[in-house]
């Protein structure tokens, strides 16, 4: 599956005590137009997994090529109790409170629709409630063969 190129997104959610959590995800897809649904796959042993089960909403910011450092930050190893600090990147709050990265090429806000057990992952399906109109990124970040690219040229 590493040979399948995909976009890079940062999934954000608030944990049960209201702290920002974010995770870089590449298993992301549109599911349905009516209702508008998207999915992201999240490993069950990851720190963000349990927060998805109690969250009022979550967001996906589709990262731009100049956000490679944000993608790396969101994919780093974390220990239990670790906290995310997204203050170096421009953000705003969604309607349900989680972060939207305004430097992204696009972003969607979701409310939980379904959480599907899928082996060592959970497929989080969200109903899109809003599409960000304030993102400024120009070129999407692409991930394939465990490397990052911009359309046409390697960036990492």
Automatic annotation (TrEMBL):
Q: What is this protein called?
A: Reductase
Which SUPFAM superfamilies does the record associate with it?
FMN-binding split barrel (SSF50475)
Q: Which keywords does UniProt give here?
A: Oxidoreductase
> What residue stretch is flagged as signal peptide?
none
- Single GO molecular function: FMN binding
Residues forming the Flavin reductase like domain are: 1-150
Q: Which Pfam families match?
A: Flavin_Reduct
